[in-house]
Amino acid sequence: MHLDRRRRIGAVAAATLLAGLFSVPAGHSAEKPHRIVENLDRGLVAVPSGEGTFLSWRLLGTEYARYGDAIAFNVYEDGRRLNRAPVTRSTTYQDNTPGAGTGTYAVRAIVGGREQRPSPAALDFAQGYAEIPLAAADGYTVQHAWPGDLDGDGRYELVVSRLAQTRDRPDLLEAYTLTGERLWRVDLGPGSYTQVGGNGANDPAPAAISGSTAIGGYRNDDNVTVHDLDGDGRAEVLVHTADGTTFADGAKVTAASPANQFVSVIDGATGTERTRQPVPDDFVTDGPSGGHFGIAHLDGAHPSLVTKLVTRVGARRGAFRILFQTWDFNGTDLTRRWKYVVPADSGATSFHQIRTVDVDQDGTDEIADGNYVVNSDGTLRYVVDGAGHGDRFHIADLDPDRPGLEGFAIQQAELGVVPKFPWYYYDADTGERLVTGRHPADWENDTDIDVGRGSTGDIDPHHPGYEYWTSTADVTAPGAGVYNVRDGKVSTTTPSVNFRIWWDGDKASELLDHTHVEKWDPATETSAKIFEPAGVVSGPRNATPFYGDLLGDWREEILAETADHTALRLYTTTEPTRTRLYTLAQNPEYRLGWTVRGYLQSTYTDYYLGTETRRVPKPTITLPEGAVSHDDHA
């Protein structure tokens, strides 16, 4: 089902009208609304490297939107300038002066020939990483982490979920600063480990965060997210709660039945509840529902909460029932924007993670859930013809020579039905399949087929655009190997298939699996490890709690838990680069990718970022109304 032309025109007209309410930086068109982004600081980090100290900092999206490339930087240690000429081609600097790393580093932006105020002092990575000690919780392990600026100072804090390894104690939500201070703890109550399915319909929840188990045990749920919804500069924490949930101040949720569940807004700085609303009870007869939380800019400007409920009818592998509800928070009240129950006969089927992304690039976000997309107004946009359930899918500008965004998804057998194809590459705006994988002949009647992983990334610079591949082990199978979006099959072997990461100095993708980073060599069709930290472990799905551009320049950090489960460690690259990009954290699609955890997947920008990238488009973004920028010169 495609969005018809009249609806497209109406959406663009509405977006254009809304855009008029916001100031438009020089060089921008007024065709899209300016979406509100976080007011981040410079994100400076200092890491021992080589003979001295490696420094890395942010070029902000807000300043790139305003000034483009007409901005440079000076680097200081204890007030003494280190660079001879202004730094213009990177947002990194290697300090090899005698005594490097013993002082306090700062950077100053240079705009129009004038030096701005100094940045906050660098975050210290003296051990090669930032250590974040975890509060005592015997027998618990960290599952997920959500970044958010909880106190409004321009630096991210982390909200983490901690799960009892024996699943007989409540899940915990905790908040920490990047310097290791614990801010608060919320006990998610007995529903987080006792509500593990209804009528035998849902999977148990060994890897779910509460709220998810509190409303049912779909094992890849999250039902937590972190974002500033009311525009006051401080992020809220949104979570499903139930009877017995205890907030940081000791206040408890009381309800007559475990079936009574809520969406709670938690103050990000204190861990106390600000307000709550009941969860829709449409699926209560099918037992507890699982699902996902995320954030979308449904009006193009302001962030809204997206909640997805999903259950399975009858048996464990019964048909999916799916409901979306979206919410707005104004600082006091949490109000419903719209509710949408996906039609049972539509062909839409739940995947293990949603994505919120502007698939038609009109400025407003849609909600993608594997083989279908829901529009920003709560209507069905399309269902991919012939596609069924799968675990992972990806949406990005995979082909820079093709207009718009593309997607790549994998499939598995469901309800005793063998999928018509194991994977598909498609148009993210319309759902049209562009390339379709083929099954080996001996899979045609295999009801246990499960293509468990699929990934995309620009791993071969000899071919334009991204490559995509799956975890299919049989290299003789028609769908095995690495494919390029333009050139078809380019390798008969495959690299690791967990996550794509930007780590070294080039714009191509590296690969993150467990806690190590690999580089694919297309000449030898093999991978080599280029980063492997000691003393840390991955969790379920061979994933770490988080990876992404938390600080420093545009490349991504890795957050991993120590093997003894007593601390988190944050690692950042020290590879030099001559590529300068605005921070990925202020790119719309990329930042929204952090707001959904679930069955973790790679995060992407909404512009093509790969080997052929020469200049990236300016983002259409703005700070919250009345915000004083942390970048000194907005």
From TrEMBL:
Keywords: Signal. Residues 1-26 form the signal peptide. Residues 224-619 form the Rhamnogalacturonan lyase family 11 C-terminal domain. GO terms for biological process: carbohydrate metabolic process. SUPFAM superfamilies: Integrin alpha N-terminal domain. It comes from the Bacteria. It comes from Streptomyces sp. R28. This is Rhamnogalacturonan I lyase beta-sheet domain-containing protein. Residues 37-121 form the Rhamnogalacturonan I lyase beta-sheet domain. Coiled coil: none annotated. InterPro entries: Ig-like_fold, Integrin_alpha_N, RGI_lyase, RGL11, RGL11_C.
